[in-house]
Amino acid sequence: MLRIDKECMCPVCLDILKDPIILSCSHNLCYECAAQLITVLSLREKDSKVFSCPICRGCTFLTSLSPECLPKNLVLKNIIESWKTAQEPSSHILCQLCVENPKYATSECITCESTLCQDCSISHLSKPRFAHHKILHLSKVKQELCMEHHLEEDLFCMTDCVKCCMKCAQFSALHNGHVILTREDAKLRLANEILQTKEILPQIYSKITTTKEEIKHQFNELEEQQQKNTNELDEVCNQLNSKVEAIRNSTKTKICKSYETLKQNLFEKIVILEGVLKQAQELSNLSDDLSLYQKSKELATIDPQLIIGDKPEVLLQFKNQSALNNLLESLCILEMKTSEIVESNKLYYLSRGSKEYVCYDLENQRVATMSIRSADIIPRWSGFVLLPNGNILITGGKPSKESGAKLAAFYLNPETGDTMPAPNMINGHSSHICLLINNEVYVLSGKNEINQTLNHCEVLNLATQSWRSIASMTYGRTCASGVHIKNFIYVFGGYQNTVNNTIERYSIEVNNWQLLPTVLPDRLWQHGCYALDSSQILIFGGEGPSDEPHRMSYVYNTTTDEFYNSASIPLTSTWLFFWLHVTRKGHMLYSINKENYILKYNIVTNTWIPLAN
């Protein structure tokens, strides 16, 4: 069944599509949203006519910088308009209880599914056998019915904090084993929370409004910065051009003077030789033989080669041209700082204990199962990290639960399935944290060669291909989660002697670990974490102390030490994100599990969306 309110949402304004246009990648946008994005494109790149889809980053080529050149999705527009019409209460619906001359209906009895006028609504409830029926205004009927079963949502799932109908509670796998109450009981149970929610709603509205204004301010600042940077570039280049032009003119003058000097010297030699030739010609006309003999002796002493000398030339050398070229190329360094990251268009799942791995292409939305071509296998309990060159570094692991961890590591080219050995680690590591930071790979804690939890940490320099030890963590941990923010590494939870909720922070600059006084709201292990920006970390999934699934996420603010933005992860299975690859594209996080199910998280709306592939 098509869910217009969810499946026909614009990725830009997050509202139902209005006058949808369709891109080359088959995704849709509101006409006005497309116009705004094209305006931003024209401001950023005046001559560019390549429009990037905000969902998949696929390219659509524009014939002009106007949304008019994009095809309209008229079929989808008609479907949405029909749906909107169906959502609106019709003024032509008649009361089904009026015997004669039925009046226009204003309400509907949910229990007996009859439309009622205002008079019949009153009389309907006045009868004892109908007193328990529930009557709603027509405008609210759609809101109170379950979209899947078309029954009244008269129950409340305390576990997921959502309304549901009787069939959802009884038969839906999403609510299996959850605490289900009637709406009245749920209101009583959540009375304080509801009151608090009502109190903080104005704060939330104010916060969102403030954030919106901040983003508008950032947009205006970007436009000003763009103009300022462009002007500065023009000014520097004009100065360089003036300097180069001055050097060219000055050097041209020097070249002309040098050549004129050399040419003058040659001309003087030519004059001398012409004088000698004239003397030789005059000798041939002498009648006195003795005078001829005397003069010829004088001419014989002249050596023309001495007059010629070395070949004159002017050497023009550009001794520092290469250095100058490098200097000019590095003169302007453009660095874009933004949280709108595209880490990778590829999402990977490594099947530990085998040669197989799965690659999901975010652009083409295709899954490919591949296999390592060499004798290597992906060890159980190993760690991995995606490198800037697209290869994957796989570290440590162990063959069985009771065996010790490996020191070995190797590189995997996921495009070809080829592997290449990497330097052995200093210590064995399994169930450890693996992070890429500034062309170095940090391997933190886990279990060692004798299968004991260790707090040893080490770093691989990808340029020198060498490992070095760094400060040890306060506690040894397995299946903890770690993330890099600014110049720090944060490590959350994990398993020591039991599942814990402590937080440690490592200073890369000082090389020391600090156990923070703040603790996680839950004891967690095998969970994931991800840096949303320079101060906020998303913590999600995993398991609790009794291996119970943790189907929640929340945000930790490193500046205020607060936890907020709790969100439910709508999954029936357990996702152990510690073992999974998580990548970011724009305002979406993506992950994939061994069943090839895709899960994405919308950073803007703080919602999780499972996608069966």
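(ticket continues) Second input and output from the same batch:
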Amino acid sequence: MQGRYAYIHTALIMGVVAVPTRIEITLLPGLPYFEVAGLSGRESKETRLRVEAALQNSGYKMPPGRISLNIVAEGYTEISGQALDLPIALLCLMISRQMILRPQIAAFGRLGLDGRVHAVRGGYARVRANYGEEPCHLVCPVQEDYLPALTDIHRNGALWAVETLRDAVLAISTEGRQGAVANVVERLKELSVEENGGSTSYRSEDMDGLVTVRGQAEAWNGLRLALAGEHHMLMLGPPGCGKSSMAGWAEMLLPELNESERRECWQILSLTERGSDVGYTELTRPFRTPHTGITLPALTGGGVYPEPGEVTMAHRGVLFMDELPRFSPAVLTALHQPLDRGEICVTRLKQRINFPARFMLLATANPCPCGYFLDRTQRCTCSPGTLQRYLSRFSRPLLDRTDIVVYMPDVREADLHDSFANEGKNSLNARESAESARQEITACRERQYTRCARLGLPPMLNSAVPPDLFADSFAITETAEEYIKVVLERYRLSARGLHRLIRVARTQADMECEENLLPEHVDMARIFCRSFSEQLYGRREKQ
């Protein structure tokens, strides 16, 4: 590969994964010129500026003649050149014979004008990329997000973390034997010791800032059930009934990430600038709270170089949307795809990028603009037209994808007195109850994963099990099947409504450590799976 042509391996980010590719270089006779096919004119100019300055300030020379580079990448309309600075600089040294190129070399990194190698977005994904069947030696910047990849990266090759361009040349020339080259494994082992060495757990002090929600037993039980099976949930109620406070407890009840989920979340986080603020062992299950004025690209993801949006940042966690009707119709409509498929497809020019988006939607809403449509003590001041316009803001398809709908009434003085008498007046009981519920939710999820493993299925929670697997994986008894038929006929459930009922019933059975799905589980699920209109108008008729 020496002479007038050379190439080097690298990786480009596509969504949340890194796609291996090659960069080719050829040196032709002629006046000095530098061009990169695959980069825009501005990106090519900026890349040359950084590479040329880094080479000269590191004691090397820019190759004389016409330098033509080509990024072998299909399906990319926009490519950022910053992560390609290091491989391009190494190619310039290889083509001008200022260093010896070894086979199967891969590199990525951003160069400073002084020759230092800086971290880049998506380093974890680039390190984990499959660069080929042959052993591959990877040269990369020193950055902490490689830590979780130590057990599965480059089993047959070498990984060299370098701080300067000279270190990179030295690593390739001496196969990393020189002490001046940072050994990434040793460096990151030191970082792992500094980072606490274990996953975080919630302390009771974390719950001190939360308001204890009393007199809302149905909502509390519904929240536990939703978190156990990752069922989407909507909480309705007047102002001050505790909807937002209940959502605050949801964040505390989320179970810890398992190793597979932690790596998925870390890979997503490493693609954003916010990833540098959190260590791998400190990573917790996401709980995202977008503002009601969020734009469509901010929710779904996008940009010139597409980055994940809120639905992807909430992957394996909770997306909390407070005051659901205040979000724009376009934003609510965009939620349909991730709620159905667990991913979001972003189209940018000629690119179609799939971002993971498997989350639990937790939403709150007032039953009307003033909030007192179903209140027992205060009169609703909304006119019929105002109420109708408000209710029309609820996306019907979105509500049809909501598994659990609960109404949280105003809590009267008698309710509070009974609640305090039963639970005690200090917050210690609330913390103990929350920790017990969190352990119960964690155990319920483990039972679901164990069942999938026993049946040879990929790990998934009940909310993600497709209907064609209900008979094989949900252990529905004959009496439960008969009762489901009765419920289906009596309440005229749609196909999606029937699927919601069965999934929630299975989670209720798992919460009770019951192997089979029984009629009482279906009956309990029916309480939580009441439709939005049934919650509103059914309660209105009873008043």
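Agent notes: The first helix runs from residue 41 to 57. The chain is about 40% helix and 15% strand. Closing as not reproducible unless the customer responds.
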